[in-house]
Design brief:
Distance between the termini: 18 Å
Helix content: 25-40%
Order of helices and strands: EHHEHEHEEH
Number of strands: 5
Strand order of the largest sheet: 2-1-3-4-5
Bound molecules: 1,3,4-trihydroxy-5-OXO-cyclohexanecarboxylic acid
Radius of gyration: 14 Å
Strand content: 15-25%
Shape: globular
CATH superfamily: Dehydroquinase, class II
CATH topology: Rossmann fold
Low-confidence stretches: none
Amino acid sequence: MATSVLILNGPNLNRLGTREPDIYGTATLSDLVELCTREALALGLIADVRQSNDEAELIGWLHEAADAVTPVIINPAAFTHYSYALRDACALVEAPLIEVHLSNPAAREEFRQTSVIAGVADGVIAGFGIESYRLALQAISRLISA
Ligand code: DQA
């Protein structure tokens, strides 16, 4: 059976397409879902893409992934920069976990240059718009077959 990959998106990412398009691009959340679904299929994986503006809901989904040993790709959005609760939930996931960003936070405001999640991720992919997710799926595929 194909492995599922949980692809989590944090606050405000439901506004993709119209939210600061000069920074985040014009692709919508449904474009992102389509890209992930197609790329996952090509890699023999199943993409389970979810978005929430609620930290507790994201934490609940990470607990699900921890229990089911499901690989995770997560764009924690603004929670990246300060949510120790989300970091602790990411640390519970034993399967590969990759942090992704559409923009390159390292090249933006100072508060975005800190990720409290990166230290518990297997790696970080940032700055390629929705292509960051394609690259992350490819990385997950390699990590789980290594
Ligand atoms: C983001 C970068 C974060 O700093 C920001 O708060 C987001 C999106 C990105 O994908 O570039 O909401 O995670």
